[in-house]
């Protein structure tokens, strides 16, 4: 067992352990009766953010980019779904995946490729500019898309994708209400996560991606082509974003130019808490934060709910200061350190990885 | 000639701030003399955002740590200053549920404009002092998220604690005391402050830590202390900007100090700083002018049209984004390359030639090395 596989094995071990822990805590929070219901719902919601955080972490590791324009991919997906809503669900999904992936690749080609070697701050500001530009395109509707696609709902910014009744209707399974959408969310996110893991572990591209995320320059020296790897990373995040977009919009229904921002913040913060330095950690962080937010918003009394976010972000600052590498990270996050202590194995030197 | 030579070293030191101040005064004189109401409004906005960008420059420019959180100081300055200046008769009706330990001294308070600005900025400074401890320990992306969390905390507080902030409702009865001249005066003062801080011993240590944290630590620079000083100072500067903002726009709410769709003050101030060149005060001023001029020119065009051409509303924002990307591609270190305005005797066409040959990428202060770590 070489070093990197062991690392991934540990991360996925931690992942499973934490998922179980979250399920347990959530069930305890909401009590036995309704617990299962909320837990299942939170699991679906959390796994959406796990996929999002994974996309963010992939780009962050490969090219040091904290991509704020990621939320706009979700938004673009929402609009594609809105425009193609009469094409039937298969056409809608295919079109969304296609357009969002192409948009992601274009983003890299036009905006991020020229500034690739600039400082992370410049990269960050570039991603702001991209996000801002795409959002403004949506607000102004420069290409007159709303007319061309015969928008019947109105020309205002707020539009909607009508939910499919067969998808959102809940049916009773042993006292717990489950909708097909929820099941679809679990399956799709699981497929995306497993697929990405396989891609990263088994294919040449995956090895190149992992090598680049550990040391980009060194990977280039050993013959990994930078353009190819970064384009691939953007393509993968595009597919992930399309998946999130479809599931998220089918869930909420609303389509507006700024819908990308809310989920982006959750994924962003969750990713950092989990540890953006490792893909598994980021996914875990996004999952946990998404699940907790969903559970809290369903269970907290109104009087407490108003200030929840305030305390949540205080906790975020505390985690950043006290556990700077995140809960799971390749250089020894909190969970891994605990795991190591439990197994009484000697800790490797700091920064050795 | 010899006399001139003797004062040259001193003149070189004070030249960039004086030139920048002159630029501001000329802007003021032109707009005040020839501009209409719309131009004056634009110029006041320009100076207000300039103060914020200067505050950001003091912290981010010198330390290399990016902050999304400074607008929180602005919100605190604006709310505090407004609370202390709204006439007590109005406050009695708009703040019915204010807790008594606050209401006992806030409700009867009626401060003069300057006192209120200083009080507002003072509270912002206090908040900066409290938050300095965790923030100075962060760098890179973590700092971005930590400061973003700070901004969200203040925003949620503003929205939810309606007994003190009126929640999402706008303020009523804030006196409009901010004038064109007062904004100009504060902007001039803060250009001086930013320069003095940058050149001071503390500023030098902080800039050293920006270039290389480990090297700076090894020669005895206490990085977190230096960062904390800059953080608190910039908190004061942005707090003043917030108070001025409150007394200029009079009706404001929490959304003025958060990500919003029109003029996104959180992102645009950062964009101004980076586009101008974050390591120099000149960069802050240039970036502020550059972004404002493009933004306003397009907004004006959308409203008035030029000939028969009138772009759809919102095009300006999109073009702004495109120009920003272009600027960052062509000048990754900002328009000024992160350097101060050169002494007139040193002016040469060499940088232009280099740009024409497209081989130079700016050799000034570089944030790249540090912020990567």
- Gross morphology of chain B: globular
Largest sheet of chain A: 2 strands, antiparallel
The number of distinct β-strands of chain B equals: 0
* Main beta sheet of chain B: none
Q: Can you lay out the helices and strands and say which pair or pack?
A:
The complex is a heterodimer of chains A (353) and B (373).
Chain A: H1 3-30, H2 32-63, H3 70-83, H4 88-112, H5 120-140, H6 145-148, E1 159-160, H7 165-168, E2 170-173, E3 176-179, H8 180-202, H9 204-214, H10 216-221, H11 226-252, E4 254-255, H12 261-274, H13 279-299, H14 302-305, H15 308-322, H16 334-343
Antiparallel strand pairs in A: 1-4, 2-3
Helix pairs in contact in A: 1-2, 1-13, 2-8, 2-9, 2-11, 2-12, 2-13, 3-4, 3-5, 3-11, 4-11, 8-9, 8-11, 9-11, 12-13
Chain B: H1 2-34, H2 37-63, H3 70-85, H4 88-94, H5 100-106, H6 113-135, H7 140-160, H8 162-165, H9 180-199, H10 201-211, H11 213-218, H12 223-249, H13 265-276, H14 281-304, H15 315-330, H16 350-357, H17 368-371
Helix pairs in contact in B: 1-2, 1-9, 2-9, 2-12, 2-13, 2-14, 3-6, 3-7, 3-12, 6-12, 9-10, 9-12, 10-12, 13-14, 14-15
Task: Give a short overview.
By secondary structure, chain A is mainly α. Chain A contains 16 helices and four strands.
State the main characteristics.
heterodimer; A: 353 residues; mainly alpha; two-stranded antiparallel sheet; two-stranded antiparallel ribbon; 16 helices; 4 strands; globular; disordered N terminus; B: 373 residues; 0% strand; disordered C terminus
């Amino acid at each position: 067992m070489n070093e990197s596989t062991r690392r991934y094995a540990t991360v996925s071990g931690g992942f499973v352990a934490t998922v179980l822990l979250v399920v347990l805590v959530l069930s305890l929070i909401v009590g036995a009766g309704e617990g299962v219901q909320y837990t299942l719902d939170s699991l679906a919601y959390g796994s959406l953010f796990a996929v999002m955080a994974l996309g963010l972490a992939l780009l962050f590791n490969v090219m040091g980019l904290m991509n704020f324009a990621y939320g706009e991919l979700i938004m673009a997906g929402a609009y594609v779904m809105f425009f193609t809503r009469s094409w039937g669900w298969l056409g809608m999904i295919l079109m969304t995946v296609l357009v969002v992936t192409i948009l992601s690749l274009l983003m890299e080609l036009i905006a991020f490729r020229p500034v690739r070697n600039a400082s992370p701050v410049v990269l960050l500001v570039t991603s702001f500019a991209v996000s801002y530009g795409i959002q403004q395109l949506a607000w102004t509707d420069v290409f007159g898309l709303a007319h061309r696609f015969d928008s019947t709902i109105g020309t205002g910014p707020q539009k909607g994708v009508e939910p499919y009744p067969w998808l959102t209707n809940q049916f009773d399974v042993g006292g717990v209400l489950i909708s097909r959408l929820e099941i679809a969310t679990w399956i799709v996110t699981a497929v995306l996560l497993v697929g990405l893991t396989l891609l990263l572990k088994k294919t040449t591209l995956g090895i190149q991606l992992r090598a680049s995320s550990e040391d980009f320059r060194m990977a280039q020296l050993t013959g990994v082509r930078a353009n190819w790897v970064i384009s691939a990373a953007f393509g993968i995040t595009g597919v992930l974003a399309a998946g999130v977009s479809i599931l998220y919009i089918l869930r909420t229904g609303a389509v507006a130019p700024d819908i990308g921002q809310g989920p982006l913040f959750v994924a962003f913060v969750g990713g950092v808490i989990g540890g953006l330095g490792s893909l598994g950690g980021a996914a875990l962080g996004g999952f946990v934060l998404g699940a907790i937010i969903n559970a809290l918003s369903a269970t907290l009394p109104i009087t407490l709910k108003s200030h929840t976010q305030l305390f949540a972000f205080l906790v975020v600052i505390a985690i950043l200061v006290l556990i700077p590498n995140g809960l799971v990270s390749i250089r020894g996050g909190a969970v891994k350190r605990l795991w190591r202590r439990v197994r009484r194995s000697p800790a490797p030197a700091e920064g050795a990885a | 000639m010899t006399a001139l030579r003797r004062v040259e070293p001193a003149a070189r030191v004070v030249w960039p701030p004086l030139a920048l101040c002159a630029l501001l005064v000329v802007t003021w004189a032109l707009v005040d003399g020839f501009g209409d109401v719309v131009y004056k409004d634009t110029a006041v906005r320009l100076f207000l955002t300039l103060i914020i960008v200067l505050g950001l420059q003091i912290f981010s420019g010198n330390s290399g740590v990016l902050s999304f959180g400074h607008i929180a100081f602005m919100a605190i300055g604006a709310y505090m200053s407004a609370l202390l200046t709204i006439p007590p008769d109005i406050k009695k009706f708009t703040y019915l549920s204010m807790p008594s330990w606050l209401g006992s001294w806030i409700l009867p308070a009626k401060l003069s404009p300057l006192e209120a600005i200083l009080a507002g900025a003072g509270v912002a400074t206090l908040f900066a002092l409290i938050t300095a401890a965790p923030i100075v320990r962060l760098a890179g992306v973590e700092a971005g998220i930590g400061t973003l969390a700070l901004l969200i905390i203040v925003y949620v507080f503003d929205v939810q604690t309606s007994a003190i902030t009126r929640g999402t409702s706008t303020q009523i009865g804030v006196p409009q005391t901010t004038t064109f001249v007062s904004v100009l005066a504060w902007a001039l003062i803060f250009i001086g402050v930013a320069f003095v801080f940058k050149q001071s011993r503390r500023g030098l240590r902080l800039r050293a830590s920006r270039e290389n944290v480990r090297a700076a630590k090894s020669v005895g620079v206490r990085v977190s202390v230096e960062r904390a000083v800059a953080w608190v100072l910039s908190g004061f500067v942005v707090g003043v900007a917030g108070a001025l903002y409150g007394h200029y726009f009079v009706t404001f709410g929490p959304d003025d100090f958060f990500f919003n769709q029109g003029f996104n003050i959180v992102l645009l101030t950062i964009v101004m700083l980076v586009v101008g060149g974050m390591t120099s005060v000149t960069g802050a001023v240039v970036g502020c002018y550059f972004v404002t001029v493009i933004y306003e020119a397009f907004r004006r065009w959308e409203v008035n049209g030029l000939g028969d051409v009138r772009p759809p509303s919102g095009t300006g924002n999109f073009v702004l984004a495109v120009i920003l990307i272009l600027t960052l591609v062509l000048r990754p270190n900002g328009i000024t390359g992160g350097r101060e305005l050169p002494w007139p005797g040193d002016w040469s066409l060499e940088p232009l030639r280099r740009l024409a040959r497209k081989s130079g990428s700016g050799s000034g202060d570089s944030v790249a090395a540090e912020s990567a770590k």
